[in-house]
Predict the structure.
Amino acid sequence: MPRRSHLAHFCTSSLIVLNACAGSAPDRFMRARASVLAITHVRIIDGTGRPAAEDQTIVLDDGRIRAVGPAGQVAIPSTAEVLDRNGFTAIPGLVGMHEHLFYELETASGSAITPAQASFSRLYLAGGVTTMRTAGTVDFEGDRKIKEAIDAGDAVGPAIHLTGPYLGASTADPDPDGVARVVDAQAEQGATSFKAYTSLRRSELRAAVDAAHRRGLRITGHVCAVGYRDAAALGIDNLEHGLVLDTEFYSGKQPDVCPNQLAVFREMVNMDLNDTAIQQMMFELRSRGVAVTSTLTVLESYTGRSIVFDPRVPLLLASRLRGLYDDAKQRRSDPDSADARLWLAVLKLEMEFERRFVALGGRLMAGADPTGWGGVLAGLADQRELELLVEAGLTAEEAVKVATLNGAEYLQEADTIGTIEVGKQADLVLIRGNPAADISAVRNVKLVFRKGIGYDAHELIAATCGTVGRYDVWRILPWSVAFLVLLGALIWRVVARRRRLGLT
């Protein structure tokens, strides 16, 4: 059965049951929760970049990795539950470094942005993401609440590192003190990361960096008014999206002014990556320890490539958004349009930059960035990112390292997550197939382990059918009124069914 029709059938049959009440109790998605668990005869891509290891055993004990090694050499405790996963591959849980908990959809008049904390948390986990950093927010309070619910075990999703609302210029003249105060206020509200955005000027960026660093916290940036070398010199920790957004190479660049992005693209795609200035920029980022986050999926979404239009996306959207999605898809479906050809050139340039940056020893990380015209969804896009990193010239093992260990190191959590090693937290993903031979196998996620508990990826996706962008009646109505609405809907369905069967 084709993927779309299979998922459509599963969504139809499961939606009533899985979404009949507010939220989704975590235990309904759990498929492996033994205190001691042995996964046998599995291939391992461990996150270090080393070649895949065949026929391995992993022993999980109380949420930690107790043993890893060849299947015939690892002692399996007598108390262990055994999962024989011959034909499967285990990778570390993905560490998504450019994620959002809102959905953006292009409309004829602009864009519509909808908070999607609960649905995206499930999709991220289903896609194999066990740790994530938001890279800007439109609803910080909502993001904080879903993080707290996940941490308390009341909701399912990855461990979330919270970035505050976007930091941009808000005054005609630079206001570094004001920006520093915003950083301090966001930190007091629970932000552990900050996002410098396009309009922020040099003095303001310095103030934001200094304010974050005084607290021992880090700051990333989708910068535009400031070029990458200046941002690195000012102490920024991370740059989003890569070379294609570095405006310092644009001929019309003026200090502290963000130029038109498409104009920058048109010049950038004609640049030679062997250019001395670009080489110097790459070297400075590496030498200063500035990480770059790859977001190839969102760049690709504008190219009109047929693979961009994932048939699962409309099934996951709320009904009120599907017509808007179809309209946006129609506008983005011509790969021969001038716009699509430009974006394809941008994508290819960025792929080559990222391959070279990795070869140079720079820290490349990965994220989905589920924004743009609407074709990019949490979790699904994180899997596509791995495919695109391989298309860019990385091996599958290198791509997994980019999406796991590199992010863990940036978050200063590499002693706990990011690789499949003894003593680390049992965050790992079981995939049917061999991504080392065919990277598209990363779409076949079956079980996602977080802290040693295995969650059913298919059930997580089914629980999300029709919910992305859905109005949340449970936030709007008092619980008692919402309960009566639910009860009435269920009674109506029972009565209607009995009438169809001639029982009333």
Observations:
- The first strand starts at residue 30 and ends at 32.
